[in-house]
Amino acid sequence: xxITLEPVTIDNFEDIIEMELPPDQAGFVATNAQSVAQAHYxxxxxxxxxxxxxxxxxxxxxDVASHDIPGNYGIYRLxxxxxxxxxxxxxxxxxxxLGRLRDQSDVHxxxxxxxxxxxxxxxxxxxLGFAETGVIEDGDMIAEILLPRH
Length: 150
Description:
Layout: E1 3-7, H1 13-18, H2 23-26, H3 32-41, E2 45-52, E3 55-63, E4 72-80, H4 89-102, E5 109-114, H5 119-127, E6 131-137, E7 140-146
Parallel strand pairs: 4-5
Antiparallel strand pairs: 1-2, 2-3, 3-4, 5-7, 6-7
């Protein structure tokens, strides 16, 4: 199983924006189309295709200066197509992105947000080292990984 994170490009963006989650999951995350549009208008946003053996099967969106604070990276979206869930693809994609972010010379904080009632996301992100801050922003719980400054 070869999982890679690839830029969203003219060659794969239609696959990305057409991805849907089942109704019981769709309310937990913005659509990929909305996220790709945001990335177009917010230059600090970085959209990524999660690919399995070269085929897009998911999507991630992160921010290189969350709340306009250098060194504060925010992960806003993670979605894996329902047919590919529970195979470790989302975990591997998150581990890869976290590795990239930890390698940034200015990184001191990585945040993630999720709906407080999404117990699966809460447990998943906690297993990756995120700790809830107790802050809820726009209905989303904020969790963080704090890193020593370089």
